[in-house]
User: Which sequence fits this backbone?
């Protein structure tokens, strides 16, 4: 990754596809499981984590010549904690309802191993451009993985897709009804999908499917 | 002191709202260190220790230090609350360092076996998560309840990871479809375990 020769563009797309933090590297699983019971939560969480990883990669990359190796983890953690505090205040200011639903999982971005891993693997050894490309790739890849789970779980569990704020034209009330409304009203919805076990089962199946697709494409190449 | 409330808090966090299976905290070690029962149990004990001490220390920092300095200097008890997250993570990192040194000195084989997962306890969300929950919940606003909550959380984590390790030792002998091997089947098993733990819903509160 860091020592591979490749363009910044490749670093960016790697984060989304080949090196997807959740589905391939299996990092940052806690928020992945906990908050994906609705699309709105997944979007807000993805945005917050992207903000934090971009800022932490920027700071780490700019300070990379000043940071002594033995205190680096401490510096990373403090940088991340600072930006998570900022993100927490921003979310509470602009999307209060969703921020309340996410609860402790916003501060828990601090201990998301995905972000510390990017600082350690990429930002501490590379210049600003490459670190930024990597951070955006990883952030978008993370959001993408969250969305896959959010879309499946909310569809089967409630029959809707919610958004953090109303979108005129598409979702004026802040959600789209995908399944007919009789789905949830008559109790045909899979309540288990929005409860904790649904998260584990969906992620298990999604990881299985991703592995299957990867083994197919590697076998074909 | 209200023993009934203490028991409710303990059972609540250890079984009903188990940090791993209902709260999704500490999934990384739950997947990474659950291959062998003895290692999983050791990890559970280390986490229980760190979680209890960190829970108590962070409670003291918020209710003692922050409130006192806030009141004395800024005349507002909540003036320093924006520093909470930074303070919590510093406390946890120092506690993990302590456990690491202790294990290295007295249990070298266990220390070797944990490898990279020992420093990673710092980034175990179960610990920061428990500290944050203690800070948020109305019933953990006194020290003994907070300590009980933290200890119960650690016991719940140990329980979950040890059960998981027991199941995984058996999975080694079964014929799992190739794409599901490793993380996939572990997640599915965790889902079923989580279903089982939902059976505790309704005990306590």
Assistant:
């Amino acid at each position: 990754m860091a020592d591979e020769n490749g363009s910044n563009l490749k670093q960016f797309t790697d984060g989304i596809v080949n090196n997807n933090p959740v589905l391939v590297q299996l990092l940052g699983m806690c928020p992945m499981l906990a908050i994906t019971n609705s699309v709105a939560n997944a979007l807000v969480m993805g945005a917050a984590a992207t903000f934090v990883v971009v800022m932490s990669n920027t700071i780490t990359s700019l300070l990379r010549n000043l940071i002594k190796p033995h205190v680096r983890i401490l510096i990373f953690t403090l940088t991340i904690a600072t930006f998570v505090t900022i993100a927490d205040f921003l979310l509470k200011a602009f999307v209060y309802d969703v921020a309340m639903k996410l609860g402790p999982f916003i501060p828990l971005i601090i201990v998301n191993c995905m972000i510390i891993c990017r600082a350690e693997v990429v930002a501490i050894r590379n210049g600003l451009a490459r670190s930024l490309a990597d951070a955006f790739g990883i952030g978008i890849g993370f959001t993408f993985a969250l969305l896959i789970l959010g879309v499946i779980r909310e569809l089967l569990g409630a029959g809707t897709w919610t958004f953090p704020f109303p979108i005129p034209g598409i979702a004026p009330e802040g959600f789209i009804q995908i399944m007919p409304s009789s789905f949830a009203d008559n109790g045909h919805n899979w309540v288990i999908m929005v409860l904790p076990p649904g998260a584990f089962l969906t992620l298990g199946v999604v990881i299985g499917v991703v592995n299957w697709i990867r083994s197919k494409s590697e076998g074909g190449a | 002191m209200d023993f009934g409330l203490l028991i409710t808090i303990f059972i609540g966090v250890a079984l009903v709202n188990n940090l791993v299976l209902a709260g999704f905290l500490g999934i990384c070690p739950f997947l990474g260190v659950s291959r062998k029962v003895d290692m999983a149990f050791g990890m559970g004990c280390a986490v229980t220790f760190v979680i209890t001490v960190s829970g108590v220390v962070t409670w003291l920092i918020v209710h003692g230090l922050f409130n006192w300095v806030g009141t004395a200097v800024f005349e507002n008890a909540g003036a320093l609350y924006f520093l909470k997250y930074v303070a919590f993570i510093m406390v946890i990192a120092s506690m993990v360092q302590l456990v690491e040194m202790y294990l290295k000195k007295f249990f070298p084989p266990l220390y070797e076996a944990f490898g990279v997962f020992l420093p990673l306890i710092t980034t175990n969300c179960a610990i920061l998560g428990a500290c944050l929950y203690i800070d948020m919940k109305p019933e953990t606003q006194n020290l003994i309840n907070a300590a009980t909550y933290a200890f119960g959380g650690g016991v719940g984590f140990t329980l979950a990871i040890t059960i998981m390790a027991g199941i995984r030792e058996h999975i080694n002998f079964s014929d799992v479809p190739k794409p599901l091997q490793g993380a996939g089947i572990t997640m599915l098993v965790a889902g079923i375990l989580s279903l089982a733990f939902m059976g505790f819903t309704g005990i306590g509160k």
